[in-house]
Amino acid sequence: GAEYSCPQLKVEREILKEGFHRDLVTRVSIQDFVEQVDSCRILLNETMPSGLFMDPFQISSLQQHHLVEAIVPTSIDVEAPEYLSKEHTALVYMKPDETCKDCYISTVPVHARYHRPSAEVYEMSIHIRSPQLLMRCSKDFPPRDCTKHPLIEAPCGSSTEKECEWMDLPYTLVKDNTTVKVPVGIEQHGPVVCIVTIAVTLICTGMLLRTIYKHKQKST
């Protein structure tokens, strides 16, 4: 029967917003699995490249307002530039998409890191790899037709340490707009920026000293 067929998954991914602070949106639609879909959960194992990161403190705050459900390592250095950072993983739990039947959606904020100034390019392109997609259902799971797909232990949810069995499922990526372009400082501008910064600092210091001197003269 249909309840034992293996789910066919289609995935769409896109980056929203501009600048250094973006939203990563993933949509999953499930076919051939209608009977169980209401009892299922989908978990994305995301890998953020060194040029991007998820802020664990922001994610924690959003979770308190039930806007995001995710597990992000608290060891992430949110201040470090790209060339001093490593890629990191994050577990993102999807929720049912009310705008679409048998669909799931997740929206998580991602942030770009500052890159080392370059002599050749004005911007860098950072691509987010496709995630590992895990699924579990509370009834008739795993389906008979899916025994070839591996079962993996992962947290049942973001607020529990309890682990559940999830099935690692393949999917068809029908849309993948997950490249982030980040502006890069121009190396040749370095000396100019230093000179201007020093000049402005000296002018401001001079004006401040002049004001203090005038104020002292008035006082006497």
UniProtKB/TrEMBL annotation:
Entry GO CC: endoplasmic reticulum membrane
Chief location category: endoplasmic reticulum
Keyword annotations from UniProtKB, A to Z: Endoplasmic reticulum, Glycoprotein, GPI-anchor biosynthesis, Membrane, Transmembrane, Transmembrane helix
InterPro entries: PIG-X/PBN1 (IPR013233), PIGX (IPR040039)
A Pfam family reported for this protein in Swiss-Prot or TrEMBL: PIG-X
Pathway where it operates: Glycolipid biosynthesis; glycosylphosphatidylinositol-anchor biosynthesis
Subcellular location: Endoplasmic reticulum membrane
UniProt superkingdom: Eukaryota
Residues annotated as transmembrane: 190-209
One GO-annotated biological process of the protein: GPI anchor biosynthetic process
Membrane topology recorded in Swiss-Prot or TrEMBL: Single-pass membrane protein
Function: Stabilizing subunit of the glycosylphosphatidylinositol-mannosyltransferase I complex which catalyzes the transfer of the first mannose, via an alpha-1,4 bond from a dolichol-phosphate-mannose (Dol-P-Man) to the glucosaminyl acyl phosphatidylinositol (GlcN-(acyl)PI) intermediate to generate alpha-D-Man-(1->4)-alpha-D-GlcN-(1->6)-(1-radyl,2-acyl-sn-glycero-3-phospho)-2-acyl-inositol and participates in the sixth step of the glycosylphosphatidylinositol-anchor biosynthesis. Probably acts by stabilizing the mannosyltransferase PIGM.
Family, per entry: Belongs to the PIGX family.
Name of the protein described by the UniProt record: Phosphatidylinositol-glycan biosynthesis class X protein
